[in-house]
Structures are given as structure tokens and as C-alpha cells.
Amino acid sequence: MAGVPESIRSFFANFFPRTQKEELVAEYIVREHRGGRNLNDILEDAYVTNRLTHEQVGRVLERPEVVHALGQDTVRSEL
Predict the structure, then answer these.
(1) How many domains does the chain have?
(2) Which of 31, 43, 45, 71, by CA, is between 20 and 30 Å from 51?
(3) pTM listed for this prediction
(4) Domain region containing 66
(5) With 50 as the cut, is the pLDDT of residue 38 above it?
(6) Which residues contact 18 (CB under 8 A, 6 or more apart)?
């Protein structure tokens, strides 16, 4: 949903509630990236691929807190 105003994104976020799995994977991605790992490598980890669909990973990568932690350019390159 790149380029979509935050107000619209927030509205539609209500239709896709965050799951506990998404929360845990978001925390994992941020933690591993802070540890120096490349985002692409993290997304290929079994921890991520066994828990979320490609669509769910996309939603995780669009979260403001994840974008902030990873950097907008890094996230855009993976979407």
C-alpha cells in the first residue's frame, strides 16, 4: 500500500487485524535486523516462512514501527 495516505491505511487496517503470529514475526524481524542481518535473509528464515503467508509478511513490512526500525528504503526493496 505504498503511496496510500496514512488515514486510508489506518481505516483498512481495521479489516485486517494484527495476529499474534504477525506481532511475533515483526518483533523477530526488527530484532534480527538490529543484530546486523540483511532483511532478505531474515525473510527467508524458517521462523518467518513457517508462520506467515507472503501477504501477511507484506502487511508486517508496512507497519510504521517496522518501517521505522528497518528504514523505508530497505522495506521498499522487499515489497
Answers:
(1) 1
(2) 71
(3) 0.71
(4) 19-78
(5) yes
(6) none
